[in-house]
Amino acid sequence: MTAVEERTTTREHTGAGEELAWISWLRVLAIAGVVTIHTAAATAVIEGARDQRRGLVAIILDIGAVFTVPVFVMVSGALLLDPRRFRGAGDFLRRRAWRLVPAILFWHVFYLGFRYWYKEETLTWDQVVNEFLNGRTYTALYFFWIVLGLALITPMLVPWIATASRRAVLVAGAGAAAMPILTMATLELRGTTVTWIVTPWTWWTPYLGFYLLGWALRGVVLRGFALAGVAVAAAGLGAMTIWQWNNPAAPDWLQTISPVTYYGLGVHLYSIAVFLLAQALIRPGALLGGLARPRMAGLGRLLGDATLGVFALHLAVLGVVVDERWIGNDVAAGSAAELLLRIAVVLVATYAIVLLARLVPVVRRVF
């Protein structure tokens, strides 16, 4: 059996559902990670967090899930950059606009209302416009702009990808990824700070590498020693990232060349490893092959298709759970068990609301 098995058709196995089951379940894993990050964040930054069980658990969960946003972008690339699904720029942009623009408008208005009526924040028009133009209306809504920006450049990428080799796309993806990696790694050397232009129409630029790599690595199925090596690498990179984050004991050179950020070298490698592991393990005959069986693949598709709505809504659910003190008496969890319960409640409650909302024809457009 070869270490790497490349597939050229989406229906080589018994059906497209099994073929793409790994993508569905990877999306579910990623959204669970996003919810975990936002729920654990307040506990991960308490004073002396590493010396307390609740703080250490929060750090492990929070930073251990740092691959989530990059993996979401890679999944988008794996699906949207497929030349076989491309029917021209007009058709592609119409479909993406119909999916994304209503959601972007709705959720930005929703969170302005959430802040004004529920959080009782005082908002001015200048503030609203400023935050909108900087992609900062509410925590993590910038992700909508990343996806929209990448969608807009996709019609320029697909015709090239249709004629390029996998190696060419891989090199292009690595080159694009090198730009944010080198920017972060040379900050101290250049004596400057991060200078990304963080506007709604430029948020996507540091993620272009992930987007291209998602397509370049789709169909690369690791086996044997290659799979074992990537599994060890993923575990090692995850452990290193968890140990390194906000840790005075971490050496300066490591913090310099591989900071714990979506743009850092370690997070790039960690995210790629997770992507490859999911693709190798969630398929018939593999360790997690049960998830690729028709019934489980269908469940994965159902949950995976709801991830956009979960991404958008969970922030409000989390805000209510914390502010109303439904679980715990403080923003930071009082114990590790309390933190785990919060994560479970926010994830399950948000999924329940979103799945119900997606049953309503018009409402499902923004979920």
TrEMBL record:
GO terms for biological process: enterobacterial common antigen biosynthetic process. Residues 21-356 form the Acyltransferase domain. It is found in: Cell membrane. This is Surface polysaccharide O-acyltransferase, integral membrane enzyme. The keyword Transmembrane applies. Keywords: Acyltransferase, Cell membrane, Membrane, Transferase, Transmembrane, Transmembrane helix. GO terms for molecular function: O-acetyltransferase activity.
